[in-house]
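2024-03-11 09:14:02 INFO receiving multi-entity request
2024-03-11 09:14:02 INFO entity count = two
2024-03-11 09:14:03 INFO echoing inputs for audit
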Amino acid sequence: MIDTLLQGLLLGSLYALFALGLSLMFGVMRLTNVAHGDFVVLAAFAAIAITTVLPWHPLTIGVVLLPPAFGFGYALQRFVLNGTLGKDPLPSMVVTFGLSIVIQNALLQLFSADPRSLDAGTLATESVQLGDGIALGTLPLVIAVVSLACTAALQMLFDRTALGRAFRAVSDDRQIAELMGLDASKIYALATAIACALIALAGVLQGMRTTVSPSDGPLLLLFAFEAVIIGGMGSFWGTFVGALILGVVQQIGFYFDPGWGIWFGHLVFLVVLVVRPQGLFPRTR
Amino acid sequence: MSGALIQTRSLVARYGDAQALFGIDFELHAGEVVAIIGANGAGKSTFLKALTGMVGVPREAVRYGGEDIGGLRPGAIVRRGLTMVPEGRRLFPSLSVEENLLIGGFARRSGPWNLVRLYALFPILKEKRRLPAMQLSGGQQQMVAIGRALMSNPQVLLCDEISLGLAPIVIKEIYDAMPATTAEGMSVVIVEQDVSVAQRVSQRLYCFQEGRVALAGDSNALTRAQISAAYFGD
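2024-03-11 09:21:47 INFO inference complete, emitting structure
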């Protein structure tokens, strides 16, 4: 059972990486990016495409992908998504849903429907022995450390920096923030840029840990969404804990029956929605 | 009259099909405190919003420091030195007192106002600087709203009904801080429901009625009867 719990925490930390970007975009702009999961898959396939021409380790590719992902996010928000924002959430959902379809079909066209993965070399096979027959994979541990570091960094950015203050101010009251001289469209673009950098990292790590196929996006979006809802919108740590809970619950489901894991996760998500719709760690101020 | 810091000529503003201002002629000079009074719906707040870019108006309708600024984005206007304390305070709930003040300094204009100066003006804010802004009393929140605007080191401060919902003693405390701001050469426009307060703190006074200027003159020279007639449209 301890093994299941530990494996669940490691799985959850990967989900946390999926969820942080979604939480950031929703928190700052109230924008639900329906293409979020497809962006993760797109990043994984971008890394796979790079490995066909450059003999780099996937982790190196992950780092190299950060600046273009940041630029992509900035441009996407500045020139496409900003135009969809308003009191009505529907336009942004329709546009990102359209993006989702375009990405899935483009990837299908370019890479076929075959599942692929990134070769992480010995990192994928090494493990750390904890005694009593419990072994933790090195790669999942690396992912957990990256996820923890990203959550801490994002929370610190939000709480302690001028940019974080600006994120919270435009989220609270865009009109007054602009009256104080903030350019909301640029601040939104920076939020999506950071979200996309996190997505790129998540995509590469997902491709290293398991396989990806062009149609995986919606399920990854669902995991991210469930983690955000379970955790509540209070903080990125809430999202992180929500993702860990989702990972553990799925792993417990897998323990009983390989077909039950995902379903268990959905069940807990539904229970949280019914019993505590504001999530476990809601916004407190 | 030439030499005005802010000048509007026949300023017209509308919300969609509804016209709110019908040709406002207004002047503000450097270092002056001007009050705008009028009943609800007279167009006072709309006028301030037109000055700060929150309501679209033609470029040449607002002249400020020799430049036409009508319809510019609010950010561009605040960087030129025109800042508003909005009606209802509109503080950022997820930011602490100090963070709210720091957001006001985002425009990065140089000038005398900084956190140290503000805390000297409103000492209670220093004590409560780490608290969420919404945990403060109404009067203290108003101090934060004024401080936030001052942090941009404005040349002109526009105050929209800053006494609304506050106890008289608190209103006095807030207006007593006004000379400290105008001593720096800043000009102030206050929109005020309370006529006696408006008359006391301002040098000149405008009375708006249904989107038009019904009366304008030196605050001390205007009589109660004149103001009443303009206010109620007798």
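2024-03-11 09:21:48 INFO post-check: Chain A is about 75% helix and 0% strand.
2024-03-11 09:21:48 INFO post-check: Chain A touches chain B at residues 162, 165-166, 168-169, 171-173, 175-183, 283, 285 (CB under 8 Å).
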